[in-house]
Design goal:
The chain is α+β, with helices and mostly antiparallel strands. 21% of the residues lie in helices and 29% in strands. The chain is built from five helices and 16 strands. The structure holds zinc ion (3 copies).
Length: 177
C-alpha cells in the first residue's frame, strides 16, 4: 500500500480509501484531515498554497480562487507588452487595438475607414457578426479612437492592458506639446 507524506501535517497516510490523493495547487499531497481544514479554490477545488493564502484571489462572488484559475477566468495577456492583466469588467474600461493589417482590410466604422491605433469601448457588445462570416462591423457610437498608432501584428479586437494605453496616450500628449 502506497504511503504518502502530507505536506502540511507531515504525517504519513495511506491511499487505501481513496483513488486520488488531494493536492494543493502546486501539486503537494495533503491528507484528508488537512484538506478538510484548508482554504480551497472554488473552481478546481484544490487547497490553496500558503503563498496564495497570503494574497488571496477572489472571484466576483468573493469565493477564494487559486492563482491559475484566477488567471484563466479574470486575466488576459496583453497583445502589446505580453504581460498578464485583469480583464475589464465594464465596457468603459475596455481598450483594444486595431492593427495596421486590420485597418488595411478596409474595415469601416460609422461609414469611414478605420485608422490603426488604440480604441476604447463605450458599451458592450460593441460589434456584431454572425457565425458564417464572423465579424461584420462595430455598432455606431460604441467605440472611440483615442490614439492613432500604426501598430503591427495580427491581433484583432484583443483587449490591451491599461499600462500600454497610458504609455501610448502619454506619448500622444508629449507629441502635441
Ligand atoms: Zn495532513
Ligand atoms: Zn483553482
Ligand atoms: Zn500591455
Amino acid at each position: 500500500m502506497k504511503k504518502l507524506k502530507c505536506s502540511i501535517c507531515k504525517n504519513q497516510y495511506s491511499l487505501e480509501k481513496k483513488w486520488l490523493s488531494e493536492e494543493n495547487t502546486e501539486g503537494c499531497v495533503i491528507c484528508d484531515a488537512c484538506y478538510e481544514k484548508e482554504t480551497k479554490c472554488d473552481y478546481c477545488h484544490r487547497a490553496l498554497t500558503n503563498e496564495e493564502k497570503e494574497s488571496p484571489r477572489e472571484d466576483s462572488d468573493g469565493d477564494p480562487m487559486c492563482e491559475s484559475c484566477y488567471t484563466e477566468h479574470y486575466q488576459e495577456t496583453c497583445p502589446i507588452c505580453e504581460d498578464y492583466f485583469d480583464k475589464a469588467t465594464r465596457a468603459d474600461d475596455y481598450f483594444f487595438a486595431i492593427t495596421k493589417s486590420i485597418a488595411d482590410t478596409g474595415i469601416q466604422y460609422n461609414s469611414k475607414p478605420m485608422r490603426p491605433g488604440i480604441y476604447r469601448a463605450f458599451e458592450w457588445p460593441m460589434y456584431f457578426g454572425n457565425c458564417v462570416t464572423g465579424f461584420e462591423g462595430f455598432f455606431s457610437g460604441s467605440i472611440e479612437l483615442i490614439k492613432e498608432i500604426p501598430l503591427d501584428g495580427y491581433e484583432f479586437c484583443e483587449e490591451i492592458c491599461h499600462e500600454c494605453v497610458e504609455k501610448y496616450t502619454r506619448l500622444a500628449k508629449g507629441g502635441a506639446a
